[in-house]
Amino acid sequence: MRHNKKFNHLTRTASHRGSMLANMSCSLFKHKRIQTTVAKAKALRVYVEPLITKSKEDTTHSRRVVFSYLKDKLAVKELFSEVANKVANRPGGYTRIIKLGIRPDDAAEMCFIELVDFDENMIKTSGKKKTRTRRAGKRSVIKETPAIETTVSADEPLAEKETPIGEDVSATEASKVE
Q1: Given 34, 127, 141, 159, which residue has the most CB atoms within 10 angstroms?
Q2: What's the pTM?
Q3: In which domain, by residue range, is 28 found?
Q4: Is 122 helix (H, G, I), strand (E, B) or coil?
Q5: What is the average per-residue pLDDT within 34-48?
């Protein structure tokens, strides 16, 4: 019986499983998307998401902790520089699993696992969602700014003859005379 055994062992020893997940996570951080089986992707998600959360705090201690899992300097550098900056405001759910179908050789379910903020196609199509309100309120009325009436003569420049519509023209001419 497998009471209280929460994670998938993937029919591997603990050392093999740890090495495989470390290699897969390094590839995920470098390429932002990898193709694998659904079982491995679900195990990888559990392995990777705490590392991404740890990378949000860029300290020497957190870099050493992440390096102890990944054992790859380039992957740690990529994680702390690019990935951590993109996911800084996201509270979790850094990865997405997209199922592809069945592999013809052994009928294993295949999928993509990718970092959410790095998928260019999804970012372009999603855009801004329209927010729906519960009640239809009054439509806002656009206030018009007063237009400027212009009269141009050949003798005077344009800037001297501009007067707002609501203002008395004779008052502005009287002030020019003084």
Answers
A1: 34
A2: 0.67
A3: 14-122
A4: helix
A5: 97
